[in-house]
Amino acid sequence: MVSEPELSLLFTKDEIAAAVSRLASEIGRDYLTKHPLLIAVLKGSFVFLADLIRQLDFPLEIEFVRLSSYGKDTESSGRVKMAPGAPSQIKGRHVLIIEDIIDTGLTAAFLLDYLRRKKPASLKLCSLTDKPERRRVMVNIDYRGLTVPDKFIAGYGIDCDERYRHLPDIYVLEQ
Ligand code: 5GP
Predict the structure, then answer these.
(1) Is residue 113 part of a domain?
(2) Ligand 1: does its nearest atom lie under 6 Å from the Cβ of 173?
(3) Partner of 136 for a Cys bridge, out of 8, 15, 67, 104, CB 3.0 to 4.6 A?
(4) Domain-embedded: residue 138
(5) pTM of the entire predicted model
(6) CA-to-CA distance for 19 and 36, rounded, in angstroms?
């Protein structure tokens, strides 16, 4: 029989909301007149993006990319792939990547490199969560929300094998 993972609460929805508000004011301060292009990494960042943009009171555009480094496992495969349909109008834009979690850093490093080649006017990274203990490549997180321990997390858009995205809080999954 497959045992259900146990969920232990890591961040409440109020703690997440406070982090999102802080990030929104940092981003608002820097991008007020820049008409940025936010590029959100699917699927994990969609709840974060939805809450964040409703606190950004200036012109902006949104695109999505679909990247994967994980299959059904909770360990990174170390390979990053981009699904077809990546945004093309990057040149000269102020681009801000919106991520759910930076773990090994491989996904963000891949996307930063991919977008940098398209010659944006500026390129920055915002991540709701950061798991610094597992970093394998250096990435600079310009806007960092919550620091998480070296545990597998889910909730608030972040899944485990497509489950738990709807939970309003963030949990550690204990196997
Ligand atoms: P990285 O390439 O930095 O190792 O991983 C980035 C991606 O791995 C994230 O966008 C996310 O999809 C996935 N990931 C990393 N850590 C976790 C975690 O604790 N929980 C979940 N659900 N996904 C994670």
Answers:
(1) yes
(2) no
(3) 104
(4) yes
(5) 0.93
(6) 21
Nearest Cα residue to atom 15 of ligand 1: 103
Instruction: Say if ligand 1 is within 6 A of residue 155 CB.
Output: no
Q: Is the pLDDT of residue 60 over 90?
A: yes
pLDDT in tens, 85-127: 777 799 999 999 999 999 999 999 999 999 999 999 999 999 9
Residue 41 lies in a domain: yes
Q: Helix, strand, coil shares of the chain as percentages rounded to 5?
A: 25, 30, 45
What is the tally of structural domains in the chain?
1
Cβ atoms 94, 120 nearer than 8 A = yes
C-beta of 154 in contact with ligand 1 (< 6 A): yes
- Cβ–ligand 1 contact at 106 (below 6 Å): yes
Q: Which of 47, 79, 103, 112 to mutate to test the pocket of ligand 1 (most atoms within 8 A of CB)?
A: 103
Ligand 1 pocket test, candidate residues 69, 113, 147, most atoms within 8 A of CB: 69
Is the pLDDT score of 76 beyond 80?
A: no
Atom number in ligand 1 closest to CA 105:
3
77 pLDDT band, cuts 50/70/90, is low
Determine the structural domain holding residue 58 and report its residue range.
13-150
Report residue 35 as tokens: 């008409």
Query: Is residue 139 included in any domain, yes or no?
Result: yes
Higher pLDDT, 175 or 40: 40
- Residue (of 169, 100, 88, 92) closest to 141 by Cα position: 100
| Average pLDDT across the chain, whole number | 92
